[in-house]
Structures are given as C-alpha cells and as structure tokens.
Amino acid sequence: MSSKKVAIIGTVGLPACYGGFETLTAYLVKHLSQEHDFTVYCTGKRYPKAQRQSHCGGARLVFLPFDANGIQSILYDCLSILHALLYADVLLVLGVSGGIMLPFVKLFTKKKIIVSIDGIEWRRAKWNFLARWYLRLAESLAVRFSHADISDNDAIQDYTAQTYSTRSRVVEYGGDHATRQPITQEHKIRYPFLCHPYAFKVCRIEPENNVPMILAAFAELPEYPLVLVGNWNNSEFGRTMKARYGSCPNLHLLDPIYDQNELNVLRGNCFVYVHGHSAGGTNPSLVEAMSLGLPVLAFGVSFNKATAEHKALFFSTQDDIKTTIKNTTFAQWQQQGAAMQAIARRRYTWDVVARKYNYLIHSVCTATEKGGLHPRLSQFSQEVLLQNQLGHYQALNMFYENEG
C-alpha cells in the first residue's frame, strides 16, 4: 500500500495537551507516521510563538490564528480544509464544525474525506438554538459528503444509521497510555486525601456531565471523599458549583491537571471512578479509567453502556449514586474493576485504533463512492463485535482477511 499525504483537521494541535481528539492525533502520528505523511492543524492561541515547533512526532504542524473550539471552530476548520486542498490526498476531519465545506470538496476535487463525527454535538446542553441548528446541519453534510464517516461508539453508529441511513465505521479511542502510578510521600503531602479511600472524577465542568448531581450526592456522603478535577473557573456555571460545594470537607475540587503522570496518581488510586457524561460517544476519560482497571460508576446512557459493555455500575439519579456507593463492597469494586480492564485490553488500545484508521485511509483512496468503499466494508461493525469475543489481534487478522 502506498503512502498518503494526510491532513488532520479539527484538533487543538500537537503536542497534545487538551482532549480526546488531540490524544487520538498524537497516537495516530506515533503509530502511522512511517506509513503516511501527516500534517496536523493547530490553533495558535494554545501554542505561544516562542514554543511552536515545525514538526512533532513525525507530523508537520500548521498554525492558524483561530480557536479550535467554540464559534471560531467553524472558521478554523474551514480554513484548515482549504489549505489542505493544496497538498493532501486525504482529509481526516475530526468533528463536524467545518461540515459546510465538504460538499464542495467532494464535488469539485479528488480529495478523499474521512470524518469522525465524535458525539452528537448538537444535542449538548451548552449550545443555544442557532448553534444547535448549525451543528446539526454540519453533521448532516459531513456524513453525506464524506467518503467514510466514523462513529466512536456503537450507539453513535445506531444514531447515524437511523438518521442518515448510512453505515458508519466504529472506531473507538485507545486508553492504554494511562498507567498506574505509585503514591509517593511527596504526593501525600500535596494531596492528603490519598491516605484514605476516595472516589474520583475528571471532566469539563458542564451541566451535561452531571456535575451538580454528583456533587450533591457526595455532599450527603461525608464519610466518602470525592476528588473532582475540572475547569472550574472557565464558566459562570463552574464558578457557581465551586462556590456552592467547595467548602464541603469531603469534596476536593481541583483545577485542571495536564501532567499525565500526576493525573494518573490521583485517578489510578481511587476506589471508584465516577463518570457522569451524558453526551458524546466513547468518552476518552472513561476508556482511560477502564484501562487502569478502575471500578466504574457511570451515568446510565446508551453511550456509556456500550463502552462498558453493560458491565459497569450505572446511575440515573442522586439517590442511585448514594445507594451504590454505600452498598457496594470493596471486593465487588475490585471484581468490577477487573472486568473493566479486560474489556479495555480487548477493545481500547492505540494499536487497534491506528490499524483501523490506516485501513480506512487506504480504503477511501481505492474507492470512488462512499457506498463502494469495499464490497465487504459493511461488515466492519460485525468485526468490531467479534473483537469483543476474541483477542484484539485475532479480531484484526479476521478483519483484514475478510476485507482482502
């Protein structure tokens, strides 16, 4: 298979220091830069000029003076797409903000388009009516005018099948970059709660992540500490939550931690990981927790249930949280954590993820129509399900044999 020039569009950039798409980009470059020539678009607002690099991990970096998130993401993605038309064979577009550009790209150029729609972005509570309207339109255009669209979760695939009558390809995130770190004396001095059992959660402080419900539940469980890491000061909502619950002695509300080792010390030594996300698909933070072998108490939506294969513990209300925390034994937590790790080792490794992206890159370059990627490409989902029953290497071997 020949090498391709691949533009990765829609992320904050490299080096990765933000979220799931950035981590995905870093590991795609790490695993596939010997096979493809990558260019990654970066937002200059996150990388001061004095610290910018021309290349990172084998990928060329292009900086644009716009934000990759919020309203500016539309302009950021559209300009990235226009620039990529000058050289790229494949546009790997992460997110749908620039979806309005894709009909023109597909109809008037020979460039190949792969889109990862992430979660169902337009449903997020943080957006106003106009933003939701635009994101739904952009999602529709991205799915219709890409040569392959990716869902990171079986539940998202079901959504695209019902909404757009398309066969999305399920490719989740890896979590095996998260590793357990020992607690040192220095850590205990800095974080005294490490000396006792505690629950843990890391997320953006937004209503859709059920932060109020989780904080209220643990505020009524004074004997069970909760450590919650998030961007409290980035919004009025976050500041309100911190002001309301910051004085509770068992609630430890920490600012964002970007050092992966420090985060893994706090996350990897908790007795349960609380996952409150109600939107999105396969949330990277959940996959990372599962890879660490942490017991998981997750909000009971279809995305989380699909990620955890229905084997996590789930909650829907504040009382559910309190009941589960009080009534689950240490042995039960351990057993559940082992089950989460077994799933992660089968499904959520960067080697598996990179191989699937590599296959799609080559597939779109040898096909002319989205529906004709390959005679058997519609079997992609069945192969992912096979992966749940077999070891991931055996599943990948079967996947390639069936496609070839």
From TrEMBL:
Domain Glycosyl transferase family stretches: 197-312
Domain annotation DUF1972: ranges: 4-176
Protein name per the record: DUF1972 domain-containing protein
PANTHER family named in the record: GLYCOSYLTRANSFERASE WBBK-RELATED (PTHR46401)
Superkingdom as given in the UniProt entry: Bacteria
InterPro entries documented for this protein: DUF1972 (IPR015393), Glyco_trans_1 (IPR001296)
Keywords noted in UniProt: Membrane, Transferase, Transmembrane, Transmembrane helix
Lineage of producing organism: Bacteria, Pseudomonadati, Bacteroidota, Cytophagia, Cytophagales
